[in-house]
Amino acid sequence: MIASSIPRPADRSEAPAEARVLHLLAERPAAEAFARIEHEFGVLPLLERFFDAALYDEILADGKVGTLGLCTPTPEPGWEQAAIDAVADGSGALVSGAIRLANAKADGAIVLVRWAESPHRLAWLDRPAEPASSGSVGWWRFEGVAVGPERLSRGIDPAPGSALFAHLSDYASLWALAATSCAREGVHVLRRAVRLAVHRGKSWSGAQSVALGITELEIEADLAASAVRRHRALDPAERGSREDLAVAAAAARILQRVAARPGELSRDLGIDVLGPLVEEPTAGLSVALGGSPLLEAELARVLDTDRIGGMGRIGGIGEQRAGEGIA
Q1: pLDDT number for residue 279
Q2: How far apart are CA 88 and CA 121, in angstroms?
Q3: How far is CA 130 from CA 46, 134, 139, in A?
Q4: Phi, psi for 142 (deg, rounded to 5)
Q5: Helix and strand element counts for the chain (H, E)
Q6: d(CA 182, CA 285)
Q7: Contact 295, 249 (CB under 8 A)
Q8: Where does residue 233 rank: exposed (0-12), middle (13-18), buried (19+ CB within 10 A)?
Q9: CA–CA distance from 303 to each of 40, 58, 161, 175 (Å)?
């Protein structure tokens, strides 16, 4: 387990979430910081809100780290489409399917499950004895795994406007704060690497194509970071899923571009880049929440709902559809 030192919820309440995120990034390697951020602000609130208190207390008492298994890519993208299949098994269920995780080293994952003529539910699945992937990012596969009723949530609605969707989009905008901070640091590392790389006595920082490429990344990273900070500075009641997902999608795009640049410099110019996006197992950073493709798909769903549903502005995390949360 990564995580015996992860604070309990009482500790998290002592400072704003944004301050906690920046503190984790400052004191921990990027991959570990992102895993903790996902657990504290993505997983624990779902356990607290949708599951029985006994499971929530168990996860905290055992020091387990959870990850979100809600962001698996599918031919038809979307958090709802990532639900895995389940069949009733007494008061529990048997689940089968595959999930992609940003933190495949976690102790367990929250997944969305569905079975015929029943509402969607969330399930806590313990880490398989032999996961399909051993790295920090990868896949877990399940075939007929029994899930007891204590590890199943109440019935939930995953559609835009629901409490689950609002939580995920709000978490996405908080994740965007970490993603843009990491992207900006990555740009600084790139600049230092090309400045120190020399060919026949001349630094690569003087090459116009190289310098312009990094400047483009720097501008995009700064703009995305500024948008995230302004958004998170708003009162929670003034933030909505549309804006949450817009800043998260922008953050995911720039993080992915910055993370890819060291490999391009090494392959094309022979410049070795040393830094957190290269030295650590950070592949999971850019696939969190499904990466930019899934975040953009969810943003499109919200915009479409606004356009045709007459819902007005998609609300914040406090909204809940009538009947949601009933077993």
Answers
A1: 52
A2: 12
A3: 26, 9, 11
A4: -130, 140
A5: 10, 8
A6: 9
A7: yes
A8: exposed
A9: 29, 39, 11, 21
pLDDT tens digits, residue range 260-279?
Answer: 888 888 888 888 887 666 65
225: exposed, middle or buried (Cβ count in 10 Å: 0-12, 13-18, 19+):
buried
Q: What DSSP character marks residue 318?
A: T
Q: Give residue 293's Cα distance to chain centre.
A: 13
Among 83-92, 111-120, 169-178, 305-314, the range with the most confident prediction by mean pLDDT is 169-178
pLDDT band at 315 (very low <50, low <70, confident <90, very high): very low
pTM of the model as a whole: 0.84
CA separation for the pair 265, 79 (Å, rounded): 34
Within 8 A by CB and 6+ apart from 186, the residues are: 221, 255, 258, 259, 261, 275, 276, 277
Torsion over CA: 247, 248, 252, 255 (sign): positive
SS3 85: strand
Q: Hey, what amino acid is at 59?
A: I
User: Token pair 């030295």 is at which residue?
Assistant: 279
The pair of three-digit structure tokens given for residue 122, joined into one six-digit string: 């969330």
Alpha helices in the chain (DSSP H): 9-12, 17-27, 30-37, 44-50, 53-62, 163-196, 208-233, 241-269, 276-279, 291-309
**Rounded CA separation 37/57 (Å):** 19
Query: d(Cα 272, Cα 264) in Å, to the nearest integer?
Result: 10
Instruction: Locate 287 and state its tokens.
Output: 């696939």
* Listed ranges 45-54, 94-103, 117-126, 153-162; the one with the highest mean pLDDT: 45-54
3-state secondary structure of 312: coil
